[in-house]
Amino acid sequence: MEKVAYLTIDDAPSSDFTAKLTFLQQQRIPAVFFCRGDLLAQQPEAAVRAVQLGYILGNHSYDHPSFSTISLAECQEQIRKTDAVLAAVYNRAGVPWQHKYFRFPYGDRGDLKLGHLLQGESARWKGSGPPSTRRWHRLAEQVRRFFPERVRQARTRGLAREAAIQHYLHALGYQFPPFLDITYSYLQAYQQEKDWPWTFDVLEWSLLQTPSWRGGHTLSSILARLEHPTPPDPRGPVPAAAYGLSFPGSAEIILLHDHAETSHAFYAVVERLLEQGIVFKACV
């Protein structure tokens, strides 16, 4: 049984964007590039070429703030500004903008959870995880225990913000396409949302962290993690008994990044995935 994956690449376009395009084209790998508006404005010709080659450019905000740390109006402005830049890119490319996709910076949906999917709110997301994740949950439980009213009020505000942002994305025509071959129940529950999540974060971005994120990732450990039967997820324990790139029962949405500083890891990861027999498919 083949393992299918949909490749998504955040924080484009970098100074290595054109080289990555050439590499993916040579390997016949489709991808969605989630682009920052400020970086698109610096490399409009490269973005136009990507669209003309058949790659999809998505909206990844204008300058990559954490949406829970800015006002609702600022969240909407981040989306709107990049929407306008992308519209100009597609118009210049002479290609209809048929697929409008959005991904939040850091996965932070503006709901005041700062990108953490798991805060002990749902039993299906509880379980074992890396020590740092378990510490986060213990702290969250203590806050809920001693300040229940403040937690309730914050969650109410967060839900209202989240709903308003989703409504704004819907009004602009953004969508999350149905992935019938992704069988994880937590993602199936996501189908009504208008932004893109992911199921597997490669974590090559952690090579930029000092000290390296949660225990010292290296390129070797990142490559080894691609074959881990149940790889830890920085968002929290995954609510599935079996998952990961070695799990044959579901397709995956893979998250990589277009960072010039980690381009060596980008190419190494894609090549390793091909060696593992991953079949990359277009999301449309």
CATH class equals Alpha Beta
Shape: globular
pLDDT < 50 runs, ≥5 residues: 117-134
Major β-sheet annotation: 6 strands, parallel
Radius of gyration: 19 Å
- β-strand percent reads 5-15%
Briefly note the CATH topology name.
TIM Barrel
Count structural domains: 1
Helical coverage, percent range: 25-40%
Mean pLDDT across every amino acid position = 87
InterPro entries: Glyco_hydro/deAcase_b/a-brl, NODB_dom, Polysacc_deacetylase_ArnD
Organism: Hymenobacter wooponensis
Keywords: Hydrolase, Metal-binding
GO molecular function: hydrolase activity, acting on carbon-nitrogen (but not peptide) bonds; metal ion binding
Summary of the model, kept short:
Helix content is 39%, strand content 10%. The protein has 284 residues and is of the alpha/beta class.
List its salient traits.
single chain, 284 residues, alpha/beta, TIM Barrel, six-stranded parallel β-sheet, hydrolase, NODB_dom, Polysaccharide deacetylase family protein
Q: What is the secondary structure topology, with strand pairs?
A:
Layout: E1 3-12, H1 17-27, E2 32-35, H2 37-42, H3 44-52, E3 56-59, H4 72-93, H5 131-146, H6 148-171, H7 185-188, E4 200-201, H8 219-225, E5 252-257, H9 263-275, E6 278-280
Parallel strand pairs: 1-2, 1-5, 1-6, 2-3, 4-5
Helix pairs in contact: 3-4, 4-6, 5-6
